[in-house]
Amino acid sequence: MHTVKLSLGERSYDIEIGANLDEAGARLQGLCLGRKMAVVTNPTVKGLYGGRLIESLKAGGFLVMSIEIPDGEQYKNLDWVNSIYTALLINSFDRKSALVALGGGVIGDLTGFAAATFMRGVPFVQVPTTLLAMVDSSVGGKTGVNHPMGKNMIGAFYQPKKVLMDLSVLRGLPREELLSGMAEVIKYGVIRDAAFFDYLEKNREKILSLDPDALEYVVRRSCEIKAEVVSKDEREGGLRAVLNFGHTVGHAIETAENYRMRHGYAVAVGMVYASRLAHKTGLCGAAVPERVEHLVRSYNLPSDLSALGRKPAVAALMDTMQLDKKAEGGKVKFVLPKRIGEVVITKEWDEGALRDILKS
Ligand code: NAD
Ligand code: GLY
Q1: Per-residue pLDDT reduced to its tens digit, 4-56
Q2: Which of 177, 179, 258, 325 to mutate for ligand 1's pocket (most ligand atoms within 8 Å of CB)?
Q3: Residue 243 Cα to ligand 2 middle (Å)
Q4: What are the counts of helices (DSSP H) followed by strands (DSSP E) for the chain?
Q5: Same domain, yes or no, for 163 and 179?
Q6: Domain total of the chain
């Protein structure tokens, strides 16, 4: 097992990579959690891993109940947060009672937001079960839900007390979900670590066949990069925005298409488009978008919108981007690569070029 520390003063916590689900109860000792605990999950994940996690928590002395949210991004909304509050109130949860998010990014974001707001904040633990949740959403404390007008429009920065990752659960993950997580992994190489990008280029087969060492390295390096960025800029005053590489266009696609495309797939297209935009804006040479597109495609991720069948209107995408909370002072901020391993956050980008890229 490997532990990555996210350093945030008294809100620091451990990300335990390679922890065994059956040891969760023991691993949560000493975190000042109350005895009452609610495992929030969905029917798919509950059926696969709920029993093991709940047994282990009970063996650790916790009084455990479970709360089920239907499976899907469309349930990441305030109605289902409210259903969590109701279950907690009916079961007399208090301010020390803890929530445990068992699932992918949807469950993690929703549960984290419920934990941030129930009784002005109760402790919570992330037990991510998708690659995407392991390398991104369970780490760093962004919690929240969608609004019909935009993705993640309602939320809070709220850090978990611990993140427990049992990598063996990735064996049962549908292929598309594994690939979706790989998009966020590729993101870390582009924004921060050229050597990691090279590693991803050279070790595709090992990674996709879930070779244990390769998988551990990919998750560890991703978490290290995210932890380093978040520890320097928890609330996205500046640097943290680099983690949004590929997300400006990606979120617009997800919203405009009503989440028909998986998050990671939309981010993959967004990374390719942002790299092309960087080239057209004169920030980088043609080799950067070419390498990004090549890597994205080599992991069977989409590099354009043809996967959707019909293309969303360019005007709709541009409008949705404008609404994205990352638009400040009227102009959308883009994260654009200067080279592999280094990006800039800028409002200076060529709108005509972006329209052309979206049309192409
Ligand atoms: P998801 O949570 O919808 O999970 C994908 C699917 O995999 C679901 O059907 C789920 O039931 C299933 N599943 C989960 N674990 C499984 C397992 N081990 N075996 C088999 N099936 C399993 O999707 P996701 O890609 O994990 O997360 C996407 C969400 O994460 C989006 O809402 C996105 O906005 C959010 N996100 C948040 C952050 C953040 O910083 N908070 C970062 C990135 C993404
Ligand atoms: N996923 C972007 C962030 O955590 O900041």
Answers
A1: 999 999 999 999 999 999 999 999 999 989 999 999 999 999 999 999 999 99
A2: 177
A3: 5
A4: 15, 13
A5: no
A6: 2
